[in-house]
């Protein structure tokens, strides 16, 4: 019930109160106009939530449902520079609003005060927006003159989106706020190789936090006595064999654990294909060292053995992919990287407002199914989309909004993933390890 109250207040504060205030402040709405900032935003947020491909006709109806009748021609006229300023300002407001659910009390994740997963995702934009969001250039399929990068820090214990930062596509991951944010004492950070930096790991350790990262090919490793190791001969040579020992990493010889396992040939071939494809897209060839290191799954961490065994290290390392699934949900299902226009102003409005919708949708997922270990976010999202117009209609009345949440809770009670024996799902592996 506390989560329901928090989400209801957050939705009303952002989508009604702040929307109306910012609409006036950005001059999107003049004081004598019938269209309000909240009806414009709510109509588009929930209209696109219900149907990400909705055109002007459907969106104008959604805005009418949210409180202000508006023709499709009138809506097309409103996608201007003021609308861009307004939608971006409200997006920034929503990014600062933190909503969390009650974490599940048992399982592997509960051993830490938080488990922050960090990653980024690129949205490529039309070239006409290069002056708004600068792309990284690149080569071939990765070329992007204009692009925006989403830098996300997500606590998978409470579900809180701690940081969602929009930056130029050219910005390096390590310069993001998501990377620089401190880890709570007793908390764990899991990040992709784009955030690999031994200085950052040392900073987290000094603050009383923990970190877990894949090994970055080319990083020198020493044994506990300071002797440099040749990993290709030192690591296990038999498939399924593993090692877990204290090592010194990098020129500064950071002390940590190295946990590694030799993988089957089929997995090695898959990794080689990915390495070659990634290199090809960037006009390069994979290094011999990276191809050699693909024969093992290697993690380094400062989490002590008393808190995390080697098999559990591999489980949590795999859990990092949850944020990839989150990005997939935003792009495939909510289509934050798609737009139905070549008008730069409308493209930016659609981008910003769909991102607001992604945040609101995440809040609704926290309300409806976060407490369930077997939750299926995809199935729950489909249910949310079916109730989108009801949610928009209920937003101004707290009693009606709570009723809509009850409908949502009943509907998603069966949105669960089944068990898999051949390839256990992440929730199975996490909650099999009872603290």
Report on the architecture of this protein.
The protein is an alpha+beta fold and 435 residues long. It has helices at residues 2-25, 37-50, 56-66, 72-78, 81-95, 177-180, 198-206, 231-234, 265-281, 288-293, 310-319, 322-333, 344-368, 377-386, 388-394, 398-412, 426-432, and strands at residues 115-125, 134-137, 144-155, 161-168, 188-191, 210-214, 221-222, 242-249, 254-262, 296-301. Helix 7 (198-206) links the parallel strand 5 and strand 6 (210-214). Helix 1 crosses helix 2 (37-50), helix 2 packs across helix 3 and helix 5 (81-95) runs parallel beside helix 13 (344-368).
Rounded average pLDDT = 90
Helix content: 40-55%
Secondary structure category: alpha+beta
Q: Per the principal axes of the C-alpha atoms, what is the gross shape? A: globular
Q: Report the strand count.
A: 10
One letter per element, helices H and strands E, the order comes to HHHHHEEEEHEHEEHEEHHEHHHHHHH
Give a summary of the structure in a few sentences.
This protein is α+β, with helices and mostly antiparallel strands.
